[in-house]
Amino acid sequence: MDDKGGQKSEGKPKTEMDKDAAARIQSAEAKKNDGKHGGGVPKGSFASRAQSTADKRENQNN
């Protein structure tokens, strides 16, 4: 843990973000924001960053 009580990152995720995981995160965020953002996912949110990471990984593998 770091000095603020959070866990320290070793720089590499345990599992890489894939399209399915990003879709699940984005879906949950949209459901949570139903009514706040019209059910959308705000720019810069964790869900949008997850989707971006998954897209980049997929493009690297193709």
Describe what you observe in this structure:
- This protein is mostly helical and 62 residues long.
- Helices cover 48% and strands 0% of the residues.
- It has two helices and no strands.
- The termini are far apart.
- 13% of the residues are buried.
Brief summary:
With 62 residues, the protein is mainly alpha-helical. It has helices at residues 19-32, 46-61. The chain contains 2 helices and no strands.
Set down the secondary structure blueprint.
Blueprint: H1 19-32, H2 46-61
Protein name: SMP domain-containing protein
Region (Disordered): 1-62
Biased composition (Basic and acidic residues): 1-22
Q: Please summarize the sheet with the most strands.
A: none
Estimate what percentage of residues fall within beta strands: under 5%
The low-confidence parts are none
Distance between termini?
A: 37 Å
Computed structural class: mainly alpha
Enumerate how many helices there are, as a single number.
Answer: 2
Run of helices and strands? HH
Rg calc:
14 Å
Measured as a percent range, the helix fraction is 40-55%
Average pLDDT, to the nearest integer? 81
Global shape: globular
Count the beta strands. 0
List descriptors.
single chain; 62 residues; mainly alpha; 48% helix; globular
